[in-house]
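can u pls check wat happens w/ protoporphyrin IX containing FE
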Amino acid sequence: GLKAVDHVSGIRCAFGARSSLGLLLPTRLSWLFYNPGSSYIWEKQRKDMDIVSVIPWLHGGPVVIVSSMEMMQQVLGYSDDFDKPLPRTPGSSLFGANVAMLQKEPWKKHRRVLNPAFSKKLYLLVWKESTRMFRDMVDAEAWDKQQSVDIPLLSDLTSKFALNIVASCAFDFHSTWSDSIASAGNEMTLQKCLKVILDNIAVRFLAPTWAYSVFPFGALKRVDTAFSTIFGFMRTQIALRREKIVSEDVTSEDTQGKNTIFHNIVRANMDGGKFAFDEKEVIGNTFVMLFAGHETTARTLNSLLPLLALYEGEQDKIYQEIEQVLPDGRDPTFEDFESFTQIRKCIQEAMRLYPPVVALVREAMHDVQLDVTNKVTGEKDHSVVLKKGTQVIVNILGIHYNPRHFPDPETFKPSRWDDDSTSSDAFGAFGQGPRACIGRKFSLTEATCFVAMLLRDWRVEVDLTEGESPQQWQRRVMTDKANGPRGLGPISVRFVKRKPQ
Ligand code: HEM
């Protein structure tokens, strides 16, 4: 292990940073059984050095964790030195081969099939569906009849909203807020299934198939039900889509931009030839789009709204912007997207503080020389040679909290994006390089529209306890530990009507 990471210093423990067994077990049983656990990246790394290694002596492989922009660029960039890790466990193929997990060569085929779907037509549709769904939500929840609305668990609301939008725009599964696609499923709703899968990924990786019939209760039962419900749902939808394509009900040239992502996936299976998807690839890509396309945007809104409640000045600036862009109080349109600069800066800053994806993993494709930077100056300090197969975790959280890249990193400061409101070299929430997020514009369109619709009519507030400052609330509720890789802990907010009736 030490040789693989060229003796980079760090943690020596029983279970590796990416060992599924380690993720299942409680962390820090003792110094001997120290297990970095799933929240390690959040808790420790952002304060530590720019590079550290984790070398397990019982289970898992050696990894290095890097937390500087310069090293992120080396690892995620366009060279052939690093690629996505090769699948090692049976669980790696849980969802079937898909665009997000494959290595460079097979990946190209998947991007080629999916890329054309991510066009302006799609973003227009995302905007349109976001306004429709928002209005629908207000009606269904009867918010208009109330002066203030308490949202006890914000993540439930943002997750349902985002799942409906991806279902409608990427898959053409239209639903209303009350008859939501999120509520589909027999024993468990789709929204619940996706959450159970996310929370129990390590269980699925580890448990052998026979375990589900021998121990059909507890976590195993929940995981099994979630997987069978979601796979059943996807199979049905894929079959329906095939029928539609055969009967030529749907064409990829749909003028409204509907159907395109899912249509492309299923079509690629039917067309045959060099770029054909096999059955597993159809399932894999359907799953990854459904999953990656909703949970991440939901998390962004889940951290942004309480931040706006805490930093009232920033919320006021958004409201002023909305009044300027929509002086007659109309619904925003996609043409207004570029004008909502304050909203976009706030979204970007929320994603810097609470990135929905906290770490990205790559593997050295051969023995690779990595230039290690000095934490304070950012200059090259020395090089290390990582052996072929060594995994590198790019710690997005660590980079976002690195004061060299973002001075006063703990503070929510949207004005730090004034100069270049859309990108910064150290911003890694959507990844970087060739594998950067394909859905970036999709999610920014959706989140901007949601915030514009919400804040036009409502003010967001949170309940501070007596004598508590906003910063204390942030530390108490949006805690380091709670955030971990699984998102923030439970958050409740209140929406108060701006113009009482
Ligand atoms: C706030 C929202 C989002 C965040 C923070 C986010 C984050 C990311 C990140 C960090 C990656 C790079 C992974 C890596 O380098 O290993 C990625 C890739 C990906 N994202 Fe997103 N994502 C978001 C929204 C979406 C949406 C809306 C979709 C689809 C509709 C989507 C689909 C994908 C796919 C398919 C990939 C794999 C791309 C490839 O490897 O070619 N994402 N995302």
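Residues 293 and 439 are 7 Å apart (CA to CA).
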